[in-house]
Amino acid sequence: MQTVSIVIPAYNEEKTIQLLLDRVFDAALPESLEREVILVDDCSRDMTARRIRQYMEVRPECAIRYIRHETNQGKGGALHTGIQAATGDFILIQDADLEYDPDEYAKLLTPILNNKADVVFGSRFMGGDAHRVLFFWHSVGNRFLTLLSNMFSDLNLTDMETCYKVFRSSILKSLILEEKRFGFEPEVTAKVARVPGVRIYEVGISYYGRTYAEGKKINWKDGFRAIYCILKYNVFSRNPLPSATELYRETEITANVPA
Q1: In the chain, which ranges are continuous DSSP H helix?
Q2: SS3 for 77?
Q3: Whether the model pTM is above 0.70
Q4: What is the dihedral of CA 62, 79, 104, 23, to 10 degrees?
Q5: In angstroms, what is the C-alpha Rg of the chain?
Q6: 66 DSSP β-pair partners
Q7: pLDDT, tens digit, 9 for 90 and up, residues 73-103
């Protein structure tokens, strides 16, 4: 039986966290795949922690590995903690808001489970799924950052900045990740693109974006940081990485070693 670790970074998400957890646990997974839910509360200052504890009391059958940061470290910092704690064969990134739909887990995982991919990006800009109509300049900015990232990574992604990314754990855990805020996306894209033999796929997903009044956090400063990260991790920091095949074999060998 294989396991997918669903890593959820959360910061001040009291309004959405319980509904999000319902959707995460109710989402159908492909057969013979179990879920491990790791929720990292990045020192929320609202009622997020209380809402999570209430949820764990009301639905004890839903096993949650709850980790709380004592100081705010940013989305990337929360993801680092969650990735480190993950024990599954695959790691799926899930935001704590309701912009991304957990019902699409099966779609995201299928290319990996069919052994066609090692990494899957869920693209908001391909396919015919539902999209909330929101900010024009955000859309332009996302496409520009994806284009810039593609120019240096030699990928042809349509949505580098997407939250929905799924990795073979062996590949993601092999990367030394540094970015503490929203620079996680361009950094992980640059570094995974350099894994020799890595197979990266995209699938179209729906997107239910939030306004700033509804709790959206990313801003123009994060866009400039993303440009810096694209240049830093694609041009100025290019450490060699083990191949995807080697990482996959190491995982299989470790899994077969008797306890």
Answers
A1: 17-26, 48-58, 74-85, 105-113, 136-153, 169-174, 184-193, 220-231, 244-256
A2: helix
A3: yes
A4: 30
A5: 18
A6: 39
A7: 999 999 999 999 999 999 999 999 899 999 9
